[in-house]
Amino acid sequence: MMRFVKPLLASVALCTMLPLQAYAELDVIGLKAAIESSVAGNYATLDALYKDIHAHPELAFQEVKTAARLAADLLSNGSAATEKVGKTGLVAIYKNGDGPTVLVRTELDALPTEEKTGLPYASHEKANWNGREVFVAHSCGHDIHMATWVGTAKTLLGLKDQWRGTLMFIAQPAEEVGAGAMAMLREGLFTRFPKPDFGFALHAIGAFAHGTVLYTVGAGSSSADGLYIKFRGVGGHGAVPQATIDPVMMAARFVVDVQSVISREKDPTEFGVVSIGTIQGGTAANIIPDEVVLTGTIRSFKPEVRAKMLAGVARTAKAVAAMSNAPEPMVMITEGIKAVMNDPGVVATAEKVLKAAFGDKLRPIPPVTPSEDYSEFISSGVPSMFFRIGVYEPERVAAAREGEGPQLPGNHSPLFAPVPKPTIETGVEAMTLAVLSVFDQHARENAREK
User: Mean pLDDT across the stretch 134-157?
Assistant: First the structure.
């Protein structure tokens, strides 16, 4: 459904309106002050949005009310907002003259978990998930991302004298199940709408103080592949094992032996993990079953490491079965989420501006091991920067790191509770400056060509 989102006027006018100019002359500090002014003027709206979404979360591909709320809160100033892209996704386009198209993404979905923060705006929502009723909570920070996304839209539209080109704001469904980005792409995201020249996304992350901005060059998160193995044997009485081929023994041997792929075949300096999450088989203590099924996850950063691990996992499963004189096992490895690969050029451009704005609060960090399907946009040809922001009070973070205070709840914990105001403020400032950096870079390159 196509509709035009009702324009909302910023409550505080941006007093700093600088002409497009070279980076060397770009007044980053002045821009940061203008952004802070915009966020201050809009914060009451952003806070209300954040707390409403936090209290009323929706699961993957069920985010109908969440998407509608974002559409209603966007400061579009005439931009067209298209709903139901990838089932429940939202796309808003704002054109402001000739220039590159820049994507800014947020996620919409929450997790099937019970919130235990005790916050006055805590979620008590329930929903149907895989045939059963579950609690629902924003325990990963997507509500922070949505408030930041709207705040960034408001700020960039207020600073439209600073950039030329097209903004593409995407609210993506189903990130938690790794399916939303692909759903949007399959429904023509980059054919129905302009294909972005650059892209940005952020993630609120525990264990870091609010006010900090964290980034990587190259790999930013891991790939995630699903693993399913069925070991087939010959069942029988537990007291007569010689008359059986025991699939429980095969499963147990595999769980141990597959780790040699990690410790002896993979370069120890490269990240790679094989974790078995479920082992299912048997009905009684004194019966050896006919088959046992294992499921797990395989994670890595680099394609060559992934290929070595996948081959090693399959080979180990077959070898374990052969050692037991059992039939060849059924091994299914399902390609899942790709690794997020940050573009060095985009990162370098944004880094200069962010460093000027945040100083030593801008920090490089190693890639993280959880996965993120923003990688699908990157794989579709959008050079991007995916960065992170801290969420907790600096003193609590310092105490936890020094062992002088409790460890802070991380993402996906039922106790995950970011401090909203400084986290959202940092997110809007960092995202706005990052977007402006690539607009400025493009303008400088055009000026040199002329």
Answer: 97
Q: Are 32 and 433 in contact (CB under 8 A)?
A: yes
Neighbours of 397 (CB within 10 A): 20
Q: What six digits make up the tokens of 6?
A: 């009702």
Nearest to 362 by CA among 215, 205, 210, 204: 215
Number of separate helices (H) and strands (E) present in the chain: 12, 19
Handedness of CA 279, 283, 286, 287 (dihedral sign): negative
pLDDT of residue 79: 63
**3-state DSSP assignment of residue 122:** coil
CB 391 within 8 A of CB 206: yes
User: Residue 342: CB partners within 8 Å, gap ≥ 6?
Assistant: 215, 216, 217, 218, 219, 220, 384, 385, 386
Kindly report, residue by residue over 73-97, the tens digit of the pLDDT: 875 555 668 999 999 999 999 999 9
pTM: 0.88
What is the distance in angstroms between the CA of the first residue and the CA of the last residue of the chain?
A: 42
- Residue 220 CA to residue 217 CA, distance in Å, equals 7
Q: What percent of the chain has pLDDT over 90?
A: 88
The pairing of strands 165-172 and 101-107 is parallel
Q: Are strands 291-300 and 223-232 parallel, antiparallel or unpaired?
A: antiparallel
The answer to whether 275 and 296 have CB atoms below 8 angstroms apart is yes
210-240 pLDDT, tens digit each: 999 999 999 999 999 999 999 999 999 999 9
Dist. CA 317–CA 330, nearest whole Å = 9
Name residue, tokens 């870079």. Answer: 441
DSSP sequence for 337-379 = EPPPEE-HHHHHHHHHHHHHHHGGGEEE-PPPSS--TTHHHHH
Cα torsion angle, 408, 412, 416, 422, sign: positive
Sign of the Cα torsion 113, 176, 48, 3 reads negative
Let me know if 205 is exposed, middle or buried by CB neighbors in 10 A (0-12, 13-18, 19+).
Answer: buried
